Structure prediction request, 255 residues.
Amino acid sequence: MSELFDLSGRVALVTGGGRGIGRAIAVELATAGAAVVPAARSTDEIETVAETIDDDGGDALAVPADVTDPDDVTNAIAAAEDAFGPVDVVVNNAGFNPDDALGRPEDVPAESFDRVLGVNLDGAYEVTTAAADSLLESDGGSVINVASVGGLVGLPRQHPYVASKHGLVGLTKSVALDWAPDVRVNAIAPGYVSTELTEDLEANEELRRSILDRTPLGRFADPEEIAGPAVFLASDAASYVTGAVLAADGGWTAR
Ligand SMILES: NC(=O)c1ccc[n+]([C@@H]2O[C@H](COP(=O)([O-])OP(=O)(O)OC[C@H]3O[C@@H](n4cnc5c(N)ncnc54)[C@H](OP(=O)(O)O)[C@@H]3O)[C@@H](O)[C@H]2O)c1
Prediction:
């Protein structure tokens, strides 16, 4: 691998690193040489990811954490620092889009809106600020926020998710300004990726077809296809990239 993409000696915290996109990012960051801390609520899932990385000769530590719990977040960063040293890379990937937050604005309960914002936006804010000392101390600090095409355009019947992801894009740009030149802060905007989050969408033939018809590459992405952009943004290959939103959407937003 080109030295540009080499993450040896770096320490990466990946929230939601137990399955789906976060799992793929955790594994690929480790393959590029980083010590990786997958953090999520499902202990069995993050432990399996850490074992996979260990079995492949990498370094990993699973740390159970809910990104909406400040104590969990502080503990996850402290555990990463104790195990491997200051955190150089934070991947804010934890996110969800529950059924009770889908619908017209007048029909979705306010608490559903708050819960989505609480994980997708406040959670990322919490982790980023809690890791600030570590990141600013690092020689090559990088924050990667996993947003969505829903952070770039509106989507019908998903206003909580879309508001959270637009907020995350705003947070990305603003923190990028405040932390330049010390820490680069970027976002990835995935399109439709085959994970647990999109299982119902993919199972609904009519919805699946309408998504594929709008996607120039004509398919859903595999989670690994979001991991490549994350490795790039974490690495020196992206040394002049900050405040950017990288769409990994099969061309969905090019229309
Ligand atoms: N799949 C797509 O098409 C797609 C498209 C655009 C953007 N995205 C974004 O990509 C990210 C990952 O999505 P995915 O498709 O991989 O979903 P997923 O398979 O459902 O995985 C979500 C991950 O987030 C974790 N998580 C959820 N709430 C959490 C919390 N409060 N604290 C800590 N971890 C939490 C989950 O673990 P626990 O439940 O164990 O905590 C899980 O590891 C999300 O931010 C999503 O919005 C996905």
In short: The longest helix spans residues 110-130. The chain has one domain: 3-247.
